[in-house]
Protein: Sulfurtransferase TusA family protein
Organism: Chengkuizengella marina
Amino acid sequence: MNATKILDAKGLACPMPIVKTKKMIEELQSGDILEIHATDKGAKNDLAAWVKSTGHELLESSEDNGLFKFWIKKG
């Protein structure tokens, strides 16, 4: 998936992945895709809830050896 920007949130604990995601997504245009890399297990639930409450779209998420990746389309 082609992301407009990539956010490296590895090593950050809650709530920092959400804080950084919010800040970076504000820089994007509607329809752009933000790819997020995180190691905090809570990021999966946190980002899913945040996306629902903000009108963005979680296109895909994956986990590989403790690395969580998310693709969010800006609403």
In short: The two ends are 17 Å apart (CA to CA). Residues 43-54 form the longest helix (12 residues). Strands lie at 5-9, 33-38, 57-64, 67-73. Residues 7 and 32 are 13 Å apart (CA to CA).
